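Entry under discussion copied across for reference:
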Amino acid sequence: MMSKSDSTFSPPSLSHHFEAPDDFVGWFGWLCGYSADAGFLDDAVERFVRKTHAQRAYEGRIALALMLHPGHSQITPKEVPGVLHLPINGVQPFKLLHAKVAVLGFRHVTDERQWRLRLLVSTGNWTRETLQDSLDLAWCADLSHEDLKESGNVISQVCADVTAAWSMLDWLRGHFDTRALIVTPRNQSESVSHVASQQVETWIRKVKKVGKRFVPRFVDNRDASFLAKLPDLVRQHGASARNYIAMGSGFYEKVADRDSIPSVLKTIVDSLKDANLLTNQPVIDVFVNPKACQAVANSAPAIDEAGWRVREARSPAYFKAALRSLHAKFIFIASYRENSNLCNGAWLYLGSGNLTGPGFSNRMTLQGGNLEAGVMFAPESLKWFPAKNEPARDVVTNVLPIQWDQDFDEIPDALVAGGDMPESDSRYSAAPVAYLYWVDEGHGGWLQVGDESPGSFDVLDGNGEACFRDHVKGFSWFGKRPREVRVRWRDEDQNRQAWVAVVDEFGRIAATTLPRLDIEEAWGQLAIFPMPPDDEELLPDGDDESPMGANEQGDAGTTNTNYPVRQMMQLVENIAAKQLVVNRADWVAWCTRLEQCLIQAAESPVLDEFLKLELNPLSPLWHAPFRPAFALSSETNEGRRFEESLKMVEAAWNVAALNNIGDPA
């Protein structure tokens, strides 16, 4: 019977776990998985950074670095602004990249000293199918800078979990091409994306110190299989023998003979019995998708003879009438007593590893073991059944896709083996070049490589033809700056292609066209920093550059010489006041916004009028009173970055050679 509280219980979806906490904003995150799609990622990154698709396309910065199995087709930052899908670099060390893990960093919107880290482990892929069609599970844990001041075991345990997860992700990214993450704008020393990712790693190093004496609940199979780790990890949470075990998986072994239980399932049970962690005659349930349960369907007679039960996975009530198929992978053990509703000695595995050889019994290898990840922990206060005044979140049937009302004992023919896990023959691998710089020349431009020395490759135009290449200027491109271009190269005697992001003069990656601005519009976009402009102020992708906006004065601005002077000096005063209170952690982003907005205003009538005075309007910004303490001069990184931006704007405005304001005539 469902309790009253069950009717309103609904746990967060997988994409909801990307949402920034109140007063925080997503700063940078790393995630890996077997597959993903643009729909899920666009929703997730919008929740993470609290910015729309158009705003992220305008900013052109990376907030999430994504590593998928190389067989997955490329997802570009044009499709999902803010996300960079990294290609595999060289030979993969696993059969499949199957682990589904994210480490997300959040920063306080006003206090740069406050931060949060979130570890997210999922059984489902980063796809809309996970949200709409699958029965999947997710586990997450949060840490804050304040938590590290405490000395309790709970915080130390989470620190150990985050450290272990980051160890795997850090190792994994060594096998992927990360060059586009650290790309810096021409004539500048740092990129906003790289600064953010480095700051998150600084937080992780602080966490590592706190959790180093605790055994992590997060596990991966780089050193040993989950099966080999299973008894010791269960024993961490009590050595008593439990009398119930439930096992569920989206895939099982390939079809076997009818006379034996699938080997992985049997070995899991035997290993727990041998370690005295299961009683000799426990209740054993195997949860499946009836229409695709591989060897379980064929082995149903042997499973039934052993006294086990095969059951269909249950969709909890909060999914209402929606039909969902089991994709979660889990093992749940506990002790049941008739006089207690408590799941005594409860212990749970959930993760990416299916209950198969490559997913659970094998260590990660290129030949026979996937890279898998999960958590093995003891959930507290779980109850077997709903009861009055018991929170719905503590009822095991609300948090796991299990039920005990029906099995397939009487209808074994209802079980169908289905197909094996599909594998893709395609391969998204690193191109000789990870990005290209744009150099504008009016009605066209050039695409140039960075300081790297890439191998031979072609840049393809919109018709799929190779662009002309000048070995000094780069690849010729007709028309306005593209956000991304397709490159072609030879690898292992095969022609390969991939999309490569184009980086503009501000260091924006695959960003949309910037509209021209008047002086007042430029200040409007600076005033709202660190937020981007509203969607209606941005050019839709594909539009030509617009004329200046509604605030343009046109010829009317020339009738009163003093008015443009006042406007320009007010702009400089506003910039000085604004940047004196910009957080140090936001400084690189501020310099980029400042340079970008002022260059967008290079054709403003206000500037044209001011230049008749033959004065450099930006000259006051070079002086210490107009700069924050951490950027007073070029002796600091922040000071150098600010001066780089001023030089770029002065060149665009053609004012560097003019007299400074206040100098003798």
